[in-house]
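Problem 12. The chain below contains 106 residues. Write out its predicted structure in token notation.
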Amino acid sequence: MAIIDAPVIAGTNNKQVFHLWGVTPEKTEQLFNKHVKIIATSKEERKAVTAFESSISVPNPEVIKPPYDYSMSHGYLVLPSKGIWKLDAYIEDDFFGSIIVNVQDK
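Solution.
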């Protein structure tokens, strides 16, 4: 799992694209059209919030040809305060993976 390289600002709607990979193109394609939820936990405050929810889309076949090596989920990542946050991704309520982001002040 990865996100685009852009600042994440506390307390705002951060437009974000989550890139999600399966271990094979077939596993990646099994992610298409499923629900993804990101639960974020603050290192400093030790509190968890639902920071992102969306569905996983099929890459544009005019740009990326099958077999698909990755999938994408578009939406807004919202984190209430600055600091280090762990983002845990769940697809259809099953844990998928984690990344760490540094959230900046407005």
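Discussion. The helical segments are 25-29. Students who got a different answer should revisit the alignment rule from Section 12.3.
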